[in-house]
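Structure (tokenized):
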């Protein structure tokens, strides 16, 4: 793994897990010190993260963690719903048994994560569940299109699932329900659950005038805190 790839993955994990806040300004120099590398690979990592939709690079102002508006999330979630619906159709047409096996394996990983109280593991299993549909659909362009918004939506869902309320409990129950409906051959019902599962995020966001995900001034983080934030799976990981 190159230094740029390492920096990109560490910053990505800090954003997706919620360690870095939406709208927070990122210090190229401080992150470079935290990772023990020069600023050049961190600067290149920012460009890769920009292409993933995870940061916004503002000329003469700096680099910020992305701050999605309500419209952004609505458009991304409807885009994802279209792709996953098509992927589910194609995957079921090709090999419904493989779909059930793949979803069951992901559910097992979710159960293990819940038992251990580990949010990071649950989040990975959640993503793996949905990847099953894309991978078994037999169309590599579906997965490439999915990747355009997958990481940004993962970051948003992570914050909702680790917050108050029963968002993650409902999400887990729907994963099981979809799998069970497919086992019973009730594909239309599974489609309906999938759509609701994805689009519920739009009803779980703050109202626009109270949206906390706006660009903010630079956080006054110490070098020690920044180093901790950049440690993958560090002590700030969320727990279910």
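Design, position by position:
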């Amino acid at each position: 793994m190159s230094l740029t790839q390492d920096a990109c993955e560490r910053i990505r994990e800090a954003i997706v897990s919620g360690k870095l806040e939406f709208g927070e300004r990122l210090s190229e120099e401080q992150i470079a010190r935290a990772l023990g590398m020069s600023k050049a690979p961190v600067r290149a990592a920012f460009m890769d993260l920009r292409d993933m939709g995870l940061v916004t690079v503002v000329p003469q102002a700096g680099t910020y963690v992305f701050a999605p508006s309500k419209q952004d999330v609505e458009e991304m979630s409807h885009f994802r719903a279209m792709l996953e619906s098509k992927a589910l159709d194609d995957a079921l047409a090709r090999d419904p048994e493989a779909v059930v096996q793949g979803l069951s394996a992901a559910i097992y990983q979710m159960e293990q994560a819940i038992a251990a109280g580990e949010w990071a593991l649950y989040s990975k299993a959640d993503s793996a569940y949905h990847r099953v549909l894309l991978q078994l659909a037999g169309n590599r362009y579906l997965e490439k299109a999915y990747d355009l918004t997958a990481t940004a939506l993962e970051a948003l869902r992570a914050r909702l699932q680790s917050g108050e309320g029963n968002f993650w409990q409902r999400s887990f129950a729907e994963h099981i329900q979809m799998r069970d409906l497919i086992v019973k051959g009730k594909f239309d019902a599974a489609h309906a659950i999938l759509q609701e599962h994805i689009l519920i995020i739009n009803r779980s966001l703050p109202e626009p005038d109270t949206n906390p995900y706006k660009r903010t001034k630079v956080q006054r983080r110490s070098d020690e805190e920044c180093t901790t934030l950049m440690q993958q799976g560090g002590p700030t990981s969320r727990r279910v």
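Reviewer-requested clarification: Confidence is low (pLDDT under 50) at residues 208-213, 233-240. The radius of gyration is 19 Å.
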